[in-house]
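We store amino acids, tokens; thus:
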Amino acid sequence: MRKFRKTRGMTQEELAKNSNLSTMSIRRYESGERIVTDEALQRIANALEISIYELKGLSDVEAFKAELNDSIDMTLLEMRIHKKFGIPLDVAKKIAEEIAYLLQNNLRSDVEAVYHQLLNRLTDEGQQKGKEYLEDLSGNPKYKRSTSTAEASDSLPLAPNE
């Protein structure tokens, strides 16, 4: 981070301002005192006008693989939504993009509220299909939390007013 900042002739204060982070955070990130969150890393990369992969020090090949993985995951999510709910692919793509946007903007801590917000847009039939989709996802080891975390979240309702 320091290398890119200095190459661009930016001070820590300028980088902090341009990335909407505190100067102290930038100092701690650069010194290794604090681990950079993905959200902060993206803000810093944007402020430095480089890709997050370049900021992470990935080679072009590694960056390409990471971008390809991201796009494959999105494509798989779009196809899953399309097939599971029987909705047009362009609508499935918009839903997948909205889910990704919500997750990328650090709304993971309020998953229940996001779930309810999205669920409330659907008809009763759509809500039932949404519940089935979530139950299907929860059975996939790729998306499953550790046992202790999952047990703590088992008390969350699966649909509004249940």
The two ends are 48 Å apart (CA to CA).
